[in-house]
């Protein structure tokens, strides 16, 4: 992956969570896309969005593009400011600030694993896996400040 392609892949993520569309998800996520985030799972344990038993913190958040589409499609947009991009072969590490969640900054680091896209795809590389962690305590406090948790 070239540095320009890595930058494009890095920018897929803020675009996807900030301006989610099913079309975009299908263009940039592999069908068997998997997302891991102990931060997201712990946030959901403190401020649950769904009922039922909470999965272990080491479990994947999503194990397919379809699960991501169903989950992210029902979430509010998350605006972000990209702070750093570090490309490496087929992996891109991205650091950004989620800017519309409240007064406390929520800095996130996500490692994005990319694979070459099918030849018919709009983009040359797509996301196969993400591993993200963020300041879940700041997010929880922002939710509490807004009386949403």
Structure notes:
- It is a single chain.
- This protein is globular.
- It has a single domain, classed as Nuclear Transport Factor 2, Chain: A (Roll).
- The model has no long low-confidence stretch (mean pLDDT 91).
- Strand 5 and strand 6 form a beta hairpin.
- The chain has 149 residues and is of the alpha+beta class.
- The protein has a six-stranded mixed beta sheet.
What's the quick description here?
The protein has 149 residues and is an alpha+beta fold. The chain has helices at residues 3-18, 22-28, 38-46, 65-72, 136-145; strands at residues 29-36, 60-62, 80-88, 91-98, 106-116, 125-134. It has a 6-stranded mixed β-sheet with strand order 2-1-6-5-4-3.
What topology, given as strand order, has the largest sheet? 2-1-6-5-4-3
What is the count of β-strands?
A: 6
Can you tell me the number of structural domains?
1
The major pleated sheet works out as: 6 strands, mixed
**Alpha-carbon Rg, integer:** 15 Å
Distinct helical segment count: 5
């Amino acid at each position: 992956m070239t540095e320009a392609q890595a930058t494009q892949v890095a920018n897929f993520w803020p675009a996807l969570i900030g301006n989610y569309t099913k079309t975009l998800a299908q263009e940039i996520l592999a069908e068997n896309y998997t997302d891991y985030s102990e931060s997201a799972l712990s946030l959901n344990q403190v401020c649950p969005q769904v009922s039922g038993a909470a999965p272990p913190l080491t479990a994947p958040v999503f194990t397919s593009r379809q699960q991501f589409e169903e989950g992210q499609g029902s979430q509010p947009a998350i605006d972000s400011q990209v702070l750093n991009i570090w490309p490496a072969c087929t992996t891109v590490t991205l650091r950004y600030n989620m800017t519309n969640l409240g007064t406390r900054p929520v800095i996130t680091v996500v490692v994005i694993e990319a694979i070459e896209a099918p030849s018919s795809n709009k983009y040359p590389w797509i996301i196969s896996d993400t591993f993200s962690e963020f300041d879940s305590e700041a997010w929880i406090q922002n939710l509490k400040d807004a009386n949403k948790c």
